[in-house]
Design a protein that fits this description.
- The chain is an alpha+beta fold and 434 residues long.
- The longest helix is centred in the C-terminal third of the chain and has 27 residues.
- β6 and β7 form a beta hairpin.
- It is built from 13 helices and 17 strands.
- The chain folds into 3 domains: 130 residues, Beta-Lactamase (2-Layer Sandwich), CATH 3.30.450.20; 120 residues, Beta-Lactamase (2-Layer Sandwich), CATH 3.30.450; 157 residues, Alpha-Beta Plaits, CATH 3.30.70.270.
- A 5-stranded antiparallel beta sheet has the order 2-1-5-4-3, with helices on both faces.
- It is elongated, with a radius of gyration of 34 Å.
- Its EC number is 2.7.7.65.
- GO terms for molecular function: diguanylate cyclase activity.
- Keywords: Nucleotidyltransferase, Transferase.
- This is Diguanylate cyclase.
- InterPro entries: Biofilm_reg_signaling, GGDEF_dom, Nucleotide_cyclase, PAS, PAS-like_dom_sf, PAS_4, Rev_trsase/Diguanyl_cyclase.
Length: 434
């Protein structure tokens, strides 16, 4: 008895125990009637979803989907081969064909089919085993170089001077959500976050002039619309991408891209933990100043930034009357109210023991002064319960708007001068910087 007869019943369907065993085989087993994927599908292993990039239930409900993934005219040639084997009485046949997935990627399949016939020689069941083709490098045992690249997890690209992609390999599907073919003739700049593009252009010009390599971090857009962080190693290479009569002003590039999104997120989480004041959840002074410097130096020309600086009036008196615990309660209340009250884009920093700053984006000086006044009134009307007593406090605020060419330190000094002027004028008030 043929070994296949042992697990195919008279009706052509394997029982439950046999199906469980078939699911564990290396490869994807399927059982059909004589019409192959155009007829009745009696069994197919779950692993077909890995081959086709479709849910297994799609294949079970519509067997023809597998056949439809074989491009014409190859599909017609495969059907002709199978029909010849059925007509000639062959006990088995091995087919080889390419399938095209919905995401544009392709895979070569080896399909080994055992042909089952009844006593009169009529074909009743086809039992097949699907396996992806793994080519061997000439003279070596093991997978080919393209196969290794496709499973390495990184993305390797050959780019011209404009970063137009002329070759791509590796895990483009996992990294960017697209097949490698989708990257061809498209520019890597089109995938970059806009704020990264100009920086990379400048860097590549510098690298081309010195024929040097560089490792950079940037964001590329995934097919789902979100950006992923990548570490890309650019190496200059004289790629023959332009006619010899029109030599390129800059070399081509070999780029190896690695997805570092998870590493970047972990780093940002740690940076946020170390940069944030535990009591108020505000940025500590140095991180806040770094953010302010970055905003002023990298913002668009003419972009509006304003700064509010304030501290607690007579904070030392609060500490003397209620102890450090009472003072910390007031500071904690300030942090909570700033986060809850302000809906606009802002960054909140703690510059000293009881001194705070808010960096506002896109607000005029007058709008920021209105926000500062709202803060002042809210703080002045707040009562904090402390061991059966009610603590009250007020703040004095200085407001400054960005001036062309002004450094972060000078802008902060002007806002602090406004705050000091508010104290001289009686405290519990807002004063614009000089």
């Amino acid at each position: 008895m043929d070994p296949v007869d042992a697990f195919v019943h008279d009706d052509g369907s394997p029982d439950a125990e046999t199906q469980n065993w078939l699911q564990m085989l290396p490869g994807t087993v399927y059982v059909t009637d004589s019409a192959w994927w155009l007829g009745e599908l009696r069994f197919v292993g779950d692993s077909i979803a890995t081959l086709s990039h479709r849910p297994v239930e799609d294949h079970r409900s519509r067997p023809e989907l597998w056949l439809a993934q074989i491009p014409e005219p190859e599909r017609l040639a495969v059907l002709k081969q199978l029909q010849q084997a059925l007509t000639l009485g062959s006990p088995a046949i091995r087919l080889s064909y390419v399938i095209e997935r919905s995401d544009g990627s392709r895979c070569t399949i080896d399909d080994s089919i055992n042909i089952q016939r009844d006593a009169s020689g009529v074909v009743v069941t086809l039992v097949g085993l699907l396996q992806p083709r793994v080519a061997a490098v000439a003279g070596h045992d093991g997978p080919s170089l393209p196969s290794l690249l496709d499973h390495c997890g990184d993305v390797l690209m050959a780019l011209d001077e404009d970063l137009d992609c002329h070759h791509a390999a590796g895990d483009t599907q996992g990294a960017l959500g697209v097949a490698s073919e989708s990257l061809l003739s498209s520019s890597l700049f089109a995938l970059m976050a806009p704020e990264d593009g100009s920086r990379i252009r400048r860097l590549l010009v510098e690298m081309a002039a010195s024929a040097s390599s560089s490792l950079v971090e940037l964001r590329l857009r995934h097919r789902d619309g979100d950006y992923r962080w990548f570490e890309i190693h650019f190496s200059p290479y004289p790629l023959p991408l332009t006619p010899a009569s029109e030599p390129s002003a800059m070399p081509g590039w070999v780029a190896v891209a690695r997805n570092i999104t998870q590493r970047r997120q972990q780093s940002l989480q740690w940076d946020a933990y170390t940069a944030t004041d535990e009591l108020t959840s505000a940025l500590n002074r140095e991180p806040f100043m770094g953010l302010l410097r970055h905003a002023l130096s990298n913002g668009e020309v003419g972009a509006r930034f304003t700064l509010i600086v304030f501290d607690v009036d007579r904070f030392e008196d609060i500490n003397q009357a209620w102890g450090r615990e009472g003072g910390d309660l007031v500071l904690s209340c300030i942090g909570e109210m700033c986060r809850a009250m302000l809906r606009e884009r802002f960054s909140f920093g703690r510059l000293g023991e009881d001194t705070f700053a808010l960096l506002m984006s896109g607000k005029s000086l007058q709008e920021t002064a209105t926000i500062a006044e709202r803060l002042r009134g809210r703080f002045a009307s707040t009562r904090v319960e402390f061991h059966g007593h009610w603590l009250s406090f007020s703040v004095s605020l200085g407001v400054a708007g960005r001036r062309d060419g002004e450094s972060a330190e000078i802008m902060l000094a002007r806002a602090e001068a406004g705050m000091r002027d508010a104290k001289k004028r009686g405290r519990d008030r807002v004063q614009q910087a000089p």
